[in-house]
Amino acid sequence: MAESLPTLVERAGSVRWFDHHQWDESVAASVRSAGVDLVVGPSDEECSADVTLRSLDHEFPAHLRDLVAVTRDHDLWLKEDPRSDDLADYAYWADDEEYLAVVGEHGPDLPETVRDYLAERRVEKQALVDAAVDRATTHEVGPWTVATTYGRCSQNEAAEALREAGADAAVVVKPAGSASLRGSETFERCHEVAALVNGGGHPKASGCKPEIYDDMLDYAAHWTSEGRAARRVILAAFERVAERVAEEDGRGGAETDGDRREDAAEA
Q1: Which among 106, 97, 141 has a CA at the least distance from the CA of 258?
Q2: Is 183 contained in some domain?
Q3: Has residue 74 been placed in a domain?
Q4: Model confidence over 152-185: pLDDT tens digits?
Q5: What CATH number should be reported for the domain holding residue 224?
Q6: Tally of domains in the chain
Q7: What is the pTM assigned to this prediction?
Q8: Within 10 A of 58 (CB to CB), how many other CB atoms are there?
């Protein structure tokens, strides 16, 4: 990026970058020094669509502002608006041009034909989620119960099912080698774990791809073992975060996830 970004700015004339992920200050400074207008929102409050909406000098219609709000509900894994599941599935299954045309006209209130299409596709989707949940294993790491699984499925729905089964955090390793991490009210350190295994994101939702794949033999082992090496590396990252939290707690530091877990149980 350090080499290509100045060239991009020179050719484009101006570049605006809207994001909400947690940036290293030195990286953000280098991007801005290349001439990019970088705007980064708070990752636990806004999605990138929020940042874009408030940064552009344009009065967008109500249905597109509503689309941004529902996108935030999915991206930050708030799960307060049932339309966000429909929006996420449709964005995944439809091609880009179709999706943009439909939501550009309807916003997050998808037409009946699209909802019927989603219902048909979800039969297969649910089977993949069920298979991932069935093959999951749980691990006690510090004060947390961490569930890990493998599969080509909806990571959000698999993680939600694992959370309902008692997990504080869920890891879904995918055939491509990447993994999705999802937290809960009792685990809000997904981004800290992901940062240790070549990733990043948000406190309750992040992603990573451990640097353990050198050739196709590594991928073959990954597929046949259902991501055993990736799961092991990610669990080790959870353990490192747990050790860090224990050290902070021993020094009388800020409230830990274990404290929040006890508070949630008492509520």
Answers
A1: 141
A2: yes
A3: no
A4: 999 989 999 999 999 999 999 999 999 999 999 9
A5: 3.10.310
A6: 1
A7: 0.69
A8: 7
